[in-house]
Amino acid sequence: MMKKIKKTVCFVSTRVLFCALKTLCRYDSRMRAAFASYPVGYVFRLNAGMEKDDARLTFCTTQDGGVEKIGDEAAADLEITMKSTSEAFNVFTGIAGIAQTYAAHGFYVKGNPYETMGLVRGLELAEAYLFPKILARRILTRVPSKKCSVATVYAGIVCALVKGSLQ
Description:
With 167 residues, the protein is α+β, with helices and mostly antiparallel strands. It is built from seven helices and five strands; from the N terminus they run ααββββααβααα.
């Protein structure tokens, strides 16, 4: 039962994370710069575990330095697979930060390890916006300043939910 709850939280969290990344690409120049450093059409895949039914998020970079969700059948240039649903759950709920999980070898990387760091920096920036400051201080080595309001990020997430783009 607990494993099913963790899988559900991971599924919802990957969708919310994507909406946050997309919104931050519009409003935070650091996020835009992080994704603009990759070639247009560069495909990222984030797997929330190693089982076939675990949550998965596949997206690519766009011409304007943003990101766009694509189908899971696309071949990934950079794929991050959490070692377990529990590892993914810890990251998505703020128990552990993505950098901590990276340092503890909590996920596998398929692709260029150097390029992984750009994505990890982008995910850390998203964590700074998504989690309350007291929690962000605990999981991030340095909490970055915010270039837009947290309300703007959450509004972007809600708009995506209303539009139904999270399927």
